[in-house]
Amino acid sequence: MHVFLTSVQSVVSILLLMSVGYFCDRLGWFGEQFSNALSKLIMKVALPAGIFMAMLKRFKLSQLGGLSDGLLYVLLSIGIGYIIAWIIVKIMKVPRGRRGVMMTAFNGANTVFIGMPLNLALFGSVAVPYLLVYYIINTVVIWTFGVWVIAADDPTSKKMKIDWHHFLPAPLWGFIVAMPFIIWWPQADTELPMFITRTLSSLGALITPLSLIYIGIMLQRSGLGNVKINLDTFVTVIGRFVISPIIMGIIIWCGMNYAGVDMVSIFRKTLVVQSATPCLAVLPILAHTYNCDVEFSTNIVVITSILFIVVTPLIMLVLNWI
């Protein structure tokens, strides 16, 4: 019951923030220029600042050595997930402009904004280091390879090509700049001048509300009645909530039975739960940035954010049973 109530409250909060963007845009408060500026503010200011501060506060280099197996598991899980998503996209003949979004939606988890509070509610603060294992790999892969996959699927380009600057999008600079601090100044989050940390923390705090407000705006413009499950949406939801955690579960099982890797129960459960969190909230913004299917990506974020209220208790039930 506690898990169910936590899921319900998380979903209600998400829906309320989306509704702010939806109804304000419906009242005519936001023009096209506003939504474009909002996506740039999130991508180029709030996300780099938020990732930088999250790294300083939550990552300790001394912890990572004992969690290396988990890092490898998450990397393998996401890598296999992209391969499976690519095969599915090819078989289904998904149109250009939707393929990259669909593949990234399979594997891009909303680890911080939904996954972190949910994990704390389920397992307590003892699970935070295990959560960070998933967070670091998910963040690096999505903001490098994931962004490139979406950018390479830009339907306005005449042909798909590798554009190497997509491997260093603005949000990833928050991670890159944070690494020297983590290595050589691990107390930087408390020893940096307060005006710096407060400013960056305040900017990072904008990510969730602004991203969800943006989704609400896109939802209003595409039409609330258009949020429905077609084949592409259904397969993507299955990929996020079924295929992704199954891949993670199989990798953990193989590690335990064939590689002799002994993980504590909370570590195993954390990795599986995080692999089945909703799609990252900034997916529509990435789609907009690279001229891909914003309506489809908005659909995916809304549907997965609602469905996880049912999925999480079911996954916990399975994990406790096995």
Write a structural description:
This protein has about 325 residues and is mainly alpha-helical. It has 15 helices and no strands. The longest helix has 28 residues, at about 230-260. The chain is globular and about 55 Å long. It starts with a helix and ends with a helix.
What order do the helices and strands come in, and which of them pair?
Layout (H helix, E strand, L loop, with lengths): L1 H25 L5 H27 L2 H4 L3 H25 L6 H9 L3 H13 L4 H25 L17 H15 L3 H4 L2 H12 L1 H16 L8 H28 L6 H10 L8 H7 L4 H28 L1
SS-based class? mainly alpha
Ends: how far apart? 19 Å
Give the overall shape, derived from the CA principal axes.
Answer: globular
- What is the H-and-E element order? HHHHHHHHHHHHHHH
Query: Rg from C-alpha positions?
Result: 19 Å
Number of alpha- plus pi-helical segments = 15
Mean pLDDT: 83
Strand content: under 5%
Describe the biggest sheet?
none
Question: Could you tell me the number of beta strands?
Answer: 0
Helix fraction?
over 70%
Uncertain regions spanning at least 5 consecutive residues:
none
